[in-house]
Specification:
- This protein has 753 residues and is an alpha/beta fold.
- It has 21 helices and 24 strands.
- Helix 10 runs antiparallel to helix 12 (455-471).
- It is rod-shaped, with a radius of gyration of 56 Å.
């Protein structure tokens, strides 16, 4: 009996929908009475035809092109309603249905919708216009359909007038998820948003980025295309071409989906709220409508494969909407999915790590050239749009690098060959200082040592030289706060101490050659060796102390070089640094002036000219240092200052002590008291004789020439007198340094002259 009813229904539907519409009842494809009427919209026929090129009368056209798959969906709805009516699910309530064939045409679907919205139990089947449809009773309570998104969108906008629930079994357009525009719409298939998302994900997993797209010229096709273009671009997939086919092409291979939405229907007035909260299962999975009216189902990934001339369709995986993952049924299908990567579909060859994409003149971002990452840039993935910049302060990268490398920290290391050489020279200087100290200690009572100012002064000068050589060690090794502050301070104070002691000697020489009685008395009062040394050195101590308090040297990282970090001592204040060096230079210049005036004393005991040479070496070294220091950059900058310190220190040490050591070690016959007295007597006698001869010559010249050239005679006499006074001054120096000499020197003769 049931089979007979179905056959009769099939005949009625096929016959009715294929005939022209004469009366409103002819327009109905299938109907059955009930307490609650359910509307249905199915595209049982493919299209409508007109006898004319374009319609001339407002009438519903004839439908042609029977679609068996859609017809089966219609039967599925009827079968579901019959099953509910034959069950105890709705006791005392019978469901009826009123199904229309849309003929895949929006106009036909709109005509059916008008009849759905017509007033219940009205003989004229009209739809009343109202401002509020809350109490309005329409012909049907809910609508199943339509299939095509374009038809569904149009129908849904009309159903919104009465918020009539609409459940679609095929419409997937993303716009239908907008509840502000389609508040009463539901569907049992996912939105195109997820379909296009799954497609883009599948293409990316397959390693493709150069694809073509075919779509239909309707709302469904256009909206899906727009969504897919956005999601494909987000995954760097390019659409090489787009083909738009005419709308409503049927596909007989689509799997039939049976609508199970109306398993539970409660009261008529609460139908929309019930649909929003309904949940049902298919035996293993639970389904429900989300906030957008979309069903939480997924997609099957199908592989179309030609085997021996026959096309086979294999289910490879399921796409989970919630987790955005593909679920494989077995390992074989998973391997088949992986094999998709072997199918090439790319416009350009992928760029390897260390390269980046450079787009060509093509409009597609997937067509590009691969260029190497420049220096200090890297890329660690394939097909990167741009290279990443390394942190230039701490890292660097060569051309075509896949990673950043830490910059090597450089400074003048202890194992550097230049540092070893400079340390060796410093140690050699310290050995010279110790050797000179031993030599002078063993020859304490010799005239050479005593004429040098005594052992105490020599020890102080040697100590300052020792500290100068030792200070070079603070310029080598990893800079630390302590070493940065110590190295300049130690050098500045110790070198100032050395120059101060030499200045005291130079002042003594100037005192010996001062012939103005008033100036000589002033210099004698000024000549206080210990106060002079302490004062000169104390000023340098004050300069260095202020330097350390207000702008102390600090450790600094110079990151301007591309591959290394230079760890150096930043002097803190170049003014303070310059003041320290400038003060030493002033003391050295005074020493040079004082010593230059005494350069003509006897050679064996004349320190003045050696002090002059030592100061000249100092000036040459430090004048050269300034431009070199300013222009030198890198880890060898401290080596420049070490070299200058060594040159100036060696110059003063050698000029001050080496001649004396030479006399002590290899001219011992001249380093005796008798030899010293003989030399003094000879120098004094020679100076006195020169003065007497000059006086006799002057008297003879004056008697013959009269007063013709008094200035010249005066200059000659003054020159000779100066030589005599030099001899007397030298004798005074010797008396102070060598006890017992005063008794034997010809003082009366010099005085009488």
């Amino acid at each position: 009996m049931a089979l007979l009813i179905i056959l009769i229904t099939c005949f009625v539907i096929i016959f009715a929908t294929s005939q022209p519409c004469q009366t409103p009842d002819d327009f109905v494809a299938a109907t059955s009475p009930g307490h609650v009427m359910i509307g249905g919209l199915f595209a049982i026929h493919e299209k409508t035809v007109s006898s004319e090129e374009y319609p001339r009368r407002p009438e519903i056209q004839k439908c042609v092109g029977f679609e068996i798959s859609i017809f089966l969906q219609t039967l599925a709805m009827i079968h579901s309603i019959e099953m509910i009516n034959n069950s105890t699910l709705l006791s005392g309530v019978t469901l009826g249905y009123e199904i229309y064939d849309t003929c895949t045409e929006v106009t036909v679907a709109m005509a059916a919708t008008l009849r759905f919205l017509s007033k219940l139990n009205c003989s004229r089947e009209i739809m009343e216009f109202k401002c509020d449809y809350s109490s309005y009773l329409p012909r049907v309570k809910a609508v199943i359909g339509a299939g095509y998104s374009e038809i569904t969108i149009a129908v849904s906008r009309m159903l919104n007038l009465q918020l009539m629930p609409q459940v679609s079994y095929e419409s997937t357009a993303e716009i239908l998820s907008d509840k502000s525009r389609f508040p009463s719409f539901f569907r049992t298939v996912p939105s195109d948003f997820y379909q296009t998302k799954a497609m883009a994900h599948l293409i990316q997993k397959s390693g493709w980025n150069w694809i073509g797209m075919i779509t239909t010229d309707d709302d469904y096709g256009r909206l899906a295309l727009n969504t897919f273009e956005i999601q494909a671009a987000a995954k760097n997939v390019c659409i090489a071409f787009k083909e738009v086919f005419p709308a409503f092409l049927s596909d007989n291979t689509i799997e039939v989906r049976i609508n199970q939405t109306l398993e539970k229907i409660i009261a008529e007035a609460q139908l929309l709220d019930v649909l929003k909260n309904v949940t049902f299962t298919d035996g293993k999975n639970s389904f429900h409508f989300d906030a957008h009216g979309d069903l939480n189902t997924g997609y099957d990934v199908l592989l179309w494969k030609e085997i021996n001339g026959h096309m086979t369709i294999t289910k490879m995986a399921e796409y989970d909407l919630q987790k955005d993952v593909f679920i494989f049924t077995d390992q074989e299908t998973k391997n088949e999915f992986r094999n998709l990567k072997q199918i090439p579909s790319k416009c350009s060859k992928e760029c390897s790590p260390g390269q980046m994409k450079k787009t060509t003149r093509s409009q597609h971002i997937c067509c590009y050239e691969c260029v190497n990452c420049p220096e200090n840039h890297y890329s660690n993935q394939t097909d990167m749009d741009h290279c990443l910049l390394c942190n230039n302060e701490t890292h660097w990268a060569p051309v075509r690098s896949t990673t950043c490398y830490e910059k090597e920290v450089e400074y003048l290391n202890w194992n550097d060959s230049l540092a070893i050489l400079l340390l060796g020279l410093s140690l050699l200087g310290i050995m010279f200082v110790l050797a000179i100290g031993i030599i002078f200690t063993r020859n304490l009572n010799t005239p050479i040592v005593k004429s040098s100012g005594g052992l105490t002064v020599c020890y102080v000068i040697l100590l300052s030289h020792f500290l100068n050589f030792a200070s070079t060690g603070f310029f080598i090794g990893e800079p630390q706060s302590f070493t940065c502050k110590t190295r300049q301070t130690l050098f500045g104070v110790s070198f100032t101490l050395c120059i101060s002691c030499i200045l005291m000697k130079s002042l003594k020489i100037l005192l010996a050659f001062s012939f103005d009685p008033k100036l000589q008395n002033f210099l004698k009062r000024l000549y206080k060796p210990i106060p002079i040394i302490f004062t000169c050195t104390g000023i340098q101590v004050v300069i260095c102390t202020l330097w350390l308090i207000f702008a102390a040297p600090v450790v600094e990282e110079n990151v301007s070089l591309p591959r290394v970090i230079i760890l150096k001592c930043e002097e803190g204040s170049m003014v303070a640094f310059g003041s320290m060096l400038g003060y030493i230079a002033i003391l050295a210049f005074i020493c040079f002036i004082f010593a230059f005036k005494g350069r003509k004393l006897p050679e064996n005991y004349n320190e003045a000219k050696f002090i002059t040479f030592g100061m000249l070496i100092y000036f040459i070294a430090w004048i050269t240092f300034i431009p070199v220091y300013v222009t030198t950059f890198g880890k060898y900058l401290p080596a420049i200052e070490i070299i200058v310190i060594l040159i100036s220190n060696y110059g003063i040490l050698c000029c001050t002590f080496f001649p004396k050591c030479y006399v002590i070690l290899w001219k011992q016959e001249t380093n005796t008291k008798s030899a010293f007295l003989k030399m003094i007597y000879s120098y004094s006698s020679h100076s006195a004789g020169s003065l007497a001869m000059s006086q006799a010559s002057l008297d003879s010249t004056n008697s013959s020439l009269g007063m013709t050239n008094p200035n010249a005679d005066g200059k000659s006499a003054a020159s000779q007198k100066n030589k005599a006074l030099q001899a007397q001054a030298f004798a005074d120096i010797c008396r102070e340094n060598i006890p017992g000499v005063s008794k034997t020197l010809p003082r009366k003769r010099i005085s009488s002259i």
